[in-house]
Amino acid sequence: MIGEIILFLASVSLGKIYVPVEESGFRLPELSDLKPLSQDFLFTLGNASSKLDNIQNMQYRGKVYLGTPPQEFKVIFDTGSSWLWVTSEDCEKCHDTKNSFSLQDSSSYVPLDLYKSLQYGTGFAEGVISLERAGLGDNPTVFAENQYFVLIQKDKDFENMKADGILGLGFKQLSEGKLPLVENLKRQGIIDQAVFSVFLSDNGFGDKDHTNPSSMVIIGGSDTETYGKNESTRYVTAFETTGYWSVRLSKIQIGQKEVVKASTIAIIDTGTSLLLGPSYEVKEIYSQIDKDFECQTSSGFLICSCGFFTSIDDFPLLNFTLENYSFSLTPRQYMLKQGSQCQLLLGSLGEQSIWILGDVFIRAYYTIFDMENSQIGFVGSINKDTTGNNNFNNGNAIIIIIGGVVFISLLGVLATKLINKYCNRRGENPVSYIHLQPTQSYQRL
User: Fold this and answer.
1) Buried (b) or exposed (e) across 210-238, using 16+ Cβ within 10 A?
2) What are the angstrom distances between the C-alpha of 186 and each of 12, 19, 145, 292?
3) Would you call 269 a catalytic residue per the annotation?
4) Active-site entry in 78, 157, 359, 370
5) What is the mean predicted confidence (pLDDT) over 365-369?
6) Which position has the higher pLDDT, 6 or 205?
7) How high is the pLDDT of residue 425?
8) How far apart, in whole angstroms, are the C-alpha atoms of residue 297 and residue 255?
C-alpha cells in the first residue's frame, strides 16, 4: 500500500516555521526471484509522511494551504523545482488526488491571463497561472499573500505520485522570475531569512513505524542542535543562476579509488529518492565494487551478496567532495539490504553530465538551503548513527523503487540542452555555470 507523507506546522518562533515530517512508503511485494522493479514503476518522493506500511524512506510529502478560507493540500516539497501547483476540482484528466482546489470556495483567488504547460520527463501538467494566499503546516497561522501558483487543469503520467501537487523550493530562475513561496514569505516579512532546512529521518525502510524525531522542514532557519551531530556546518556555494540547488562536484571516491569523471556539478534534491549519476561514472563505481565482492547487475542496478560470508559493513565508503569538503556515505546508507542480498541505491542518468544527490544523501546530512547567500550548509545528521538498518523479513527479493516522477519530472527534462561551461576547479569564483532548462510554455488565454 502506498503511504502518505504529511508535513505539518508545529510552531512559529523567532521568524522560523517548523514543519515536522513523518514518513511512510510502500509495502514490499512478494517476488520469487531477485529482481528490481523496472523503470516503468516510477513514483515521487517529497517531504513529510503519515505512518503506513513498509518501505518508508522513499516518499516525503507535506501540507500547504491555499485560499480564503484555507484549503488543505498534501504536496511534494521539492528542491528540484520552483513552481507551486495543485489540481483543480474541475480537472477531468488529472491523476487521482485526495484534495483539489475549488476556486469558487475562495474569496482571494485571482486567475491571471496565462496558461502554463510544464513538460516533465515522464509526464506533464498544465493549467492557469494564478495568485492566492498560501500557508504551510498543520495549523497555519502564517500566510503569504499573492503567491503565484499554477491551478492544474490537465496532467498525465503522474499516476504514481501520491500527492495533490508540488511545492517547488528551488530558485526563481525556474519559475520565470516569479517568487517561489519561501522568497515570497521573506519579501513580506513573515520569515526573517530566505532560508529553509531539511531533516529526513530514517525508519530503516519500513522496519520502524515511527521515528524520533520526525522528519522536519524548517522554513526561515535551521536547528542543528536538534537535527545535527556535534560538528560544524560546512557551507558550499550554490549556483543560483541555474535555478537548481547545484554545487561544484570536485571528486568522487569509492573506497580508496577515485572515480574518473567528466561531471562537475551535483544537484541537491529532496524530490529524488536515490543517488543518480552519469552512466559511465555509475558503471565505474559498480565495477570497483564488483571486483571485490560477489555481485550481479539486474535491470541496470548492482546487487551484491552480503550475507553469510560478507557483511554489509565490508563494503567501501562512497565519498563525494563538494568544493573542498568531503562527504562520505557508509554502505548502510547507500545500500538496501534484504536477507543475504544488498542493492545499491544508485542509478544512472544516462549521458547527463551531472549528479543528483537525493534523499539517500540528505538522510545522512542535515541540509540548510540558504537563498540569502546562495549556499548550502551540511552537518552530519543524527541519522548517521542508525541509518541503514535495512533488513526485510517479508520476502526474498530486493526491490529498488526509482523516483522517476521524482528525479525526472521534479527536476524538469534533463535531456534538454546542458551548457558546457562549469566552475573553476581550483575553488575560485565560478566563471560560468550549467543551465538545466525545464520544458515549459506559456499561452495567452
Assistant:
1) ebeebbbbbbbbbbbeebbeeeebbbbbb
2) 14, 17, 12, 51
3) yes
4) 78
5) 96
6) 205
7) 26
8) 20
Q: Is 13 exposed, middle or buried (0-12, 13-18, 19+ CB in 10 A)?
A: exposed
Residue 426 confidence (pLDDT) above 70: no
What is the rounded distance in angstroms from the CA atom of residue 152 to the CA atom of residue 90? 9
Question: Who contacts 20 (Cβ-Cβ below 8 Å, separation ≥6)?
Answer: 7, 8, 10, 48, 213, 214, 215, 216
Bridging pattern class, strands 301-305 and 318-322:
unpaired
Question: Which residue has 544488498 as its cell numbers?
Answer: 342
Q: How far apart are CA 442 and CA 246, in angstroms?
A: 26
Task: Compute the distance between CA of residue 233 and CA of residue 231 in angstroms, rounded to an integer.
Answer: 7
> Which one-letter DSSP state was computed for residue 88?
B
- Tell me the backbone φ, ψ of residue 322, rounded to 5 degrees: -105, 120
Contact by Cβ (8 Å): 72, 163: no
Determine which one of 157, 269, 359, 370 is catalytic. Answer: 269
Instruction: Report CA dihedral (337, 343, 349, 355) to the nearest 10 degrees.
Output: 50
DSSP secondary-structure letter at 27? P
Run of H or E including 6: strand 6-7
For residues 379 and 365, the answer to whether their CB atoms sit within 8 Å is yes
Alpha carbon 226 to chain centroid, angstroms: 21
* Cα-based distances in Å from 264 to 136, 256, 261, 345: 35, 20, 8, 21
pTM of the model: 0.80
What beta strand segments (E) does 93-194 contain?
110-120, 123-136, 143-156, 165-168
pLDDT, residue 211, reads 63
Task: Give the helix/strand (H/E) hosting 182.
Answer: helix 181-187
Q: What digits encode the pLDDT tens for the residues 156-197?
A: 888 877 789 989 999 999 999 999 999 999 999 988 899 999
In one letter, which amino acid is 374? S
| Residue entry with cell 561544484 | 248
Tell me the three state secondary structure of residue 286: helix
